[in-house]
Amino acid sequence: MIDAAQAQDSCARLVELASKAGADAADAVAVEAASESVSVRLGDLEDVERSESAEIGLRVFIGQRSATISTSDFSDAGFAEICERAVAMARLAPEDPYAGLAPEDMLASGGAAELDLADDAEPEPAAIKARALEIEEAARAVPGVTNSNGASAGFTRATRALVTSHGFSGAYDSTSHSLSASMIAGEGETMQRDYDYRVGRHLSDLPPPESIGKSAGERAVARLNPEPLPSGAMPVVFDPRVGGSLVDHLLGAMNGMAIARRSSFLLDRLEEDLFAPSVRIVDEPLRPRGLRSRPFDGEGLPTASRALVENGRVTGWLLNAASARQLGLSPTGHAARGTGGSPGISASNVHVEAGVLSPAELIADIEDGVLVSELIGQGVNGTTGDYSRGASGFRIRDGAIAGPASDFTIAGNLIDMFRALTPANDLAMYRAINVPTMRVDGMTIAGK
């Protein structure tokens, strides 16, 4: 596997060849990854998977025309071929008034921030298998667990590099360790399933494997014998592992490409109070060991922490170079790019800051409500904000968890939901999107 310096050198060679082939401007991104995972079920080895991939993508510009192409052939002959093909494709492409590299005067410079994204130690396959077995053993030991969908552990090492023809060159390495389990409780028609998982840049970022297994088993058992919910309006409390999806919908609506297409429910709402004044949502691309940390964006611009929501208001859009030109604004360092296609837009490590109430205090005044621990389906309209998703979780009665509930739908509109959102104080920072327990009053429940 090549290291960051070698990936950077490959990108530089490809950009140079593209310029010689007739490109007015070009950039190249290389991604190489090697991963290994082990899955077990009922104490037996079920699957061992080892994968390695290396790909480099080239984007070229001929005036306002552009084309992208990628290859896994890193040879000189392979590079020469894709440069010729990319330039020929660009000459035939339609003109795009917003096409082009990021502004040269905004490019990241100096050394990349030290984000500690790579774990020096690489586990042996036997150690990965031992973790998977340990997870499942702990899960199956939970009283009430009757079967296993399996447990797994894995490790990935990756390298990413980006070079542009107008002066940017950067690369970084990263790793990730993963643990997961899915367990079954009950028998026959009463069976319930649940899971738990954890991903971290360093092995030391993860909890003990047995804690993941125990959590998966306990979650499955807690869902036994669910009761139907009545239909009507009631408070909905989102467990942190599903509450992040609300923030994900917000990020999609803040995407500059959606704003430029006028297909966002946040259009023309920058001056509105969308959340309570105390709600603050932050993007932290430079967080050490963050799952989405990155020293530069997909176009070579520097990244920096930013409040996405401050005093209850959205602070602006997430922009790459193309959407910024279309909207007459400056790019924000949120370009995201793989080896194929033009840059998209993505936030990094995002979190909702903790509130002042504990989860118990947050639900203490709820006479009848529901805690959602799982969401099903994709019933969200990004243009209108209309929200409707299948769910399961736990009934709340008289300020306390009363028992499991399933087969119901929660519905509302994201604008109204954001305005009614109250975060608890139990924020934990180990996901890509981290949120505390969050309460949203006035949602509509469709039960039985």
Automatic annotation (TrEMBL):
Domain Metalloprotease TldD/E N-terminal: 26-90
Organism: Pontixanthobacter aquaemixtae
GO biological process, one term: proteolysis
Pfam families attached to this UniProt entry: PmbA_TldD_1st (PF01523), PmbA_TldD_2nd (PF19290), PmbA_TldD_3rd (PF19289)
GO molecular function ontology, one term from the record: metallopeptidase activity
The name this protein goes by in its record: TldD/PmbA family protein
Domain Metalloprotease TldD/E central: 121-224
Taxon lineage: Bacteria, Pseudomonadati, Pseudomonadota, Alphaproteobacteria, Sphingomonadales
Entry similarity comment: Belongs to the peptidase U62 family.
Domain Metalloprotease TldD/E C-terminal: residue ranges: 231-447
